[in-house]
Structure formats: C-alpha cells, structure tokens
Amino acid sequence: DTGVSQDPRHKITKRGQNVTFRCDPISEHNRLYWYRQTLGQGPEFLTYFQNEAQLEKSRLLSDRFSAERPKGSFSTLEIQRTEQGDSAMYLCASKEDTEAFFGQGTRLTVV
Amino acid sequence: GIQVEQSPPDLILQEGANSTLRCNFSDSVNNLQWFHQNPWGQLINLFYIPSGTKQNGRLSATTVATERYSLLYISSSQTTDSGVYFCAVIWRGGADGLTFGKGTHLIIQP
After folding, report:
1. A49 Cβ under 8 Å from any chain B Cβ
2. Are strands B104-109 and B10-14 parallel, antiparallel or unpaired?
3. What is the spatial distance between Cα B7 and Cα A105, in angstroms, rounded to a whole number?
4. Shortest CB distance from A56 goes to which of B43, B95, B103?
5. CB-based contact (8 Å) between A30 and chain B?
6. In terms of pLDDT, which residue wins out, B14 or B40?
7. Above 60 in pLDDT, residue B85?
C-alpha cells in the first residue's frame, strides 16, 4: 500500500463553480478525516467517517461543503459555489486505531 | 475546545546544532502526534506519543501528559530538517479529529 492518496493535487477554479476532491485511504483503515489548511496555520479538522458513517462535522463545514464515503473506502469532498475564502490546502487522513497518516493534499485556488 | 500552543514560532539554526521544540496543550488528550511538513505540503509522521519517550535516529520526543506538554528534540541538524513542525492532539473531551498547533518554522542554514 502506498499510503493515503488524494486527487487532484492542484485545482484552480473560478468563483461560483463547484469542485470535488477525492481521497483514497490506506486500505485497512476504517477512519477517514478531512482537514483544511490555510497559509501560515495548522490544519483544521472538518469532518470524519468511520466506515461509511459520517460521525463528526466541524462548524467550519458550511452547508456549501459536503463529504461522502459511500462504500466505506474512498471519500469525496465537494464544495459548491466556491468563494475566494475557500482557497486552501485540503488534506485527507486515515487511521485504523491510533496514528493518523496524511495524504499529499489538494491545493485549491479560487480566482 | 482544547488549545495547542507551540514554541518557538520560528527558529533559525546552523547545520549541526541541536534544538528543542515545545508543545503545550490545555486539557487531557488521548492522542499526540508530531509531524514535519515539507515544502510541498506533505505531513510526514514523526512520532505518535501520547505519553513517554521515543527516539528515532536524530529525533526524539517526550510527552508528560500529566503536565500537558510534549517536547521534540532534533540533534545534529541537517538542512533537510528545515520545514514546519506541527504538534497535534485529540482532546479527550471532544471529537475524534486532531487539533493542531500553529507550528514551529525551522530553518537550518548550511
């Protein structure tokens, strides 16, 4: 297994467009997390799944954001009607029990 | 929620020097990890250390959970150690996600 994989690595979109990111976790990990990181800050927790169930959502996750993990394997994060303030690095992590491992992230730029 | 404070925010050292990075947290935690973020944004796992001491080559870490702090030691620094070091915890009274500090930006000069 090559670790947590995210796609795309970079995305430039116009304000108002919808974007979708994909995360493939480490295969035996049942927990999957999404984080957002802006310049000069640490990553901030957005939401997490245990298998296909979405168990926690941060107040940072506005109603323009939706995440799914339909079969308990890969996950998608969709942002509708993007705004310039959505520009950030979106990170995915997975873990089985204790230690979380992160993907390389998707860098979103909204112009 | 829990507060995670890292110090110093910035550190510039010469190659070969030793350094100590500190992470203070405001409440009990179930999990503590140290990461190194490389220039491309990848978070690289250094230690999973909710308590005790661990060593991996030139790096070691100690967490004193009862006193709510953790230390990351880097010895004989190399230029490849440059980057941002993050401490992250899972608050015992909160959600399962990691809460990160703002990081220590380390620059190792040749």
Report:
1. no
2. parallel
3. 25
4. B95
5. no
6. B14
7. yes
